[in-house]
């Protein structure tokens, strides 16, 4: 370090010390009861108060014995994310109920009170203007309903009381029927039911989404289970390797004492022990991490984060023939939840096209109103007189057309392009699905063939180690050569276990990519029907 660097470091330390001292005084004021021995030189208190310390007297929990099936069952019952996802179809069903409510009949009522006072000019010019006062009270009740045919029906019953200083008080009762039929826009049943059918498709799509989520969860649980099994096997292998290295070190030290080996052999033996201990530390940490991941996925109700897991299934080669890749490709095109969901989105886009095509049309409605009225000096008498000669009839056409019609035409164009985009997306997804299945099938074949190869390699490495140990006992080789043979055997044992587990994981991926994982596990879930595009 140069002189300038030493001066700069000293200046920086001088500037930092007052701040650290102030910090320590602040901490002293906040924690006056903590002794100085519990603080670092910087003033930070790293000790916990007694009431915050965990209770170390609690007995360890009993190990949870698990098979793959039990782990999957627990996750399907208690996984928090799945519980959240299961509400999606229920929420989507409420939108379907809202759209269905458009065609439900509705009651309506109206009550009005009117008072009028005006000056009228008489017919005879020689008479003085007169004041006219009138009262009108009206009550109407009825029912109204919209039909998918574009028809709106309204049935009503109204009562009116009229009183005036120029006429006798009179009561009117009217029963009326009004029919309005759309002739252009809104006349198509397909367009009127489009939103309801879209809501049904959204509900169905949520079921496919739920199935895909459940399939992914089962895949994650089985993967986490086998990775935990692999982590336990790795730790067991490292423990055995450490025990072998320690015995080798003891044997080496004994032979050095009697003069059979030079002292330089001790270094290689101790290095091997240190290396095995280092690998054991990493293996133990990895096992603990895999245990926590599996616990989170299963979320057993009577468990805690510290509960140990005892897997009962061990990695082995499944005794089952491998189907051809064409069979998996066919199943994937029929059963993949995301592919079926994408097809539903295409059908939903077709309904958007139907709706927007209807919106381009002008509005032309036919309306007919028919009523029967009765007149008397009371409501009761006017109701009985409703069969009299009083009636009213009205019919006509109502037209409405926006100039230019640019907005509806743009919406129709957008719906057509969106549908075309959805069709292209389905074709792209089908291609990616085929790629996923083929890659997963190749991985299954590769890992299956690697099992026999790694087994043979492990057996040969055992022979090599036995030969090196025999040579070492007669002084024909060094401890370093024996350590190298031990390392090669350790790697071959790890590769054998990893390859067997990799085969299991490859099968899980193949079943998931082909959409058959739930079926092969005997799990019933909605969304197993194939969606066919017309």
| CATH level-4 homologous superfamily of the domain at 68-94 and 196-348 and 413-520 | Outer membrane efflux proteins (OEP)
Which CATH C-level class of the domain at 68-94 and 196-348 and 413-520 is it?
Answer: Mainly Alpha
* Shape, principal axes of CA atoms: elongated
Count of DSSP H/I helices: 13
> How many strand units?
8
Broad structural category: alpha+beta
CATH topology-level fold name of the domain at 68-94 and 196-348 and 413-520: Outer membrane efflux proteins (OEP)
Average pLDDT value?
Answer: 83
Q: Any guess at the CATH architecture of the domain at 68-94 and 196-348 and 413-520?
A: Up-down Bundle
Radius of gyration: 43 Å
Strand neighbour order, sheet with most strands: 2-3-4-5-7-8
Question: What's a concise summary of this model?
Answer:
By secondary structure, the protein is of the alpha+beta class.
């Amino acid at each position: 370090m140069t002189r300038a660097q030493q001066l700069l470091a000293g200046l920086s330390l001088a500037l930092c010390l007052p701040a650290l001292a102030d910090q320590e005084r602040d901490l002293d004021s906040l924690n006056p009861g903590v002794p100085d021995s519990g603080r670092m030189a910087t003033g930070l208190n790293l000790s916990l108060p007694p009431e915050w310390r965990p209770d170390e007297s609690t007995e360890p929990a009993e190990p949870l014995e698990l098979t793959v099936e039990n782990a999957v069952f627990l996750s399907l019952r208690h996984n928090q994310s799945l519980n959240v996802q299961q509400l999606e179809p229920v929420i989507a069903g409420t939108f379907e109920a809202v759209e269905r409510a458009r065609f439900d009949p509705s009651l309506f009522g109206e009550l009005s009170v009117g008072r009028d006072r005006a000056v009228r000019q008489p017919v005879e010019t020689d008479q003085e203007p007169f004041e006219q006062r009138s009262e009108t009270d009206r009550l109407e009740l009825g029912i109204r309903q919209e039909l998918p045919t574009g028809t709106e029906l309204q049935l009503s019953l109204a009562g009116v009381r009229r009183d005036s200083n120029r006429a006798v008080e009179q009561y009117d009762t009217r029963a009326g029927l009004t029919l309005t039929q759309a002739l252009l826009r809104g006349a198509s049943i397909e367009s009127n039911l489009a939103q309801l059918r879209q809501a049904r498709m959204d509900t169905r799509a949520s079921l496919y989404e739920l199935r895909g989520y459940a399939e992914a969860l089962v895949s994650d649980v089985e993967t986490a289970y086998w990775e935990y099994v692999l982590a336990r096997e790795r730790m067991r292998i490292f423990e055995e390797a450490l025990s072998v290295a320690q015995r080798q070190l003891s044997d080496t030290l004994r032979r050095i004492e009697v003069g059979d080996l030079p002292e330089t052999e001790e270094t290689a033996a101790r290095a091997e022990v240190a290396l095995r201990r280092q690998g054991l530390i990493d293996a133990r940490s990895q096992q603990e991490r895999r245990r926590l991941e599996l616990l989170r996925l299963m979320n057993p109700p009577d468990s805690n984060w510290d509960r140990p897991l005892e897997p009962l299934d061990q990695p082995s080669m499944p005794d089952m023939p491998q189907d051809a890749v064409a069979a998996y490709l066919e199943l994937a095109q029929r059963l993949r939840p995301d592919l079926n969901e994408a097809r539903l989105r295409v059908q939903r886009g077709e309904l958007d096209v139907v709706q927007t095509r209807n919106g381009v049309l002008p509005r032309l409605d036919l309306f007919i109103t028919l009523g029967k009225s009765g007149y008397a000096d009371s409501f009761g008498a006017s109701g009985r007189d409703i069969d009299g000669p009083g009636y009213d009839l009205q019919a006509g056409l109502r037209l409405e057309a926006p100039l230019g019609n640019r907005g509806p035409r743009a919406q129709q164009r957008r719906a057509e392009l969106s549908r075309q985009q959805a069709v292209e997306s389905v074709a792209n997804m089908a291609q990616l699905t085929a790629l996923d299945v083929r890659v997963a099938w190749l991985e299954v074949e590769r890992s299956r063939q690697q099992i026999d190869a790694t087994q043979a390699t492990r057996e040969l490495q055992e022979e090599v180690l036995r030969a090196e140990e025999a040579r070492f006992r007669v002084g024909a080789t060094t401890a370093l050569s024996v350590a190298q043979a031990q390392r090669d055997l350790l790697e071959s044992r790890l590769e054998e276990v990893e390859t067997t587990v990799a085969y299991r994981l490859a099968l899980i991926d193949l079943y998931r990519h082909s959409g058959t994982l739930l079926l092969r596990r005997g799990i019933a879930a909605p969304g197993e029907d194939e969606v066919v595009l017309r």
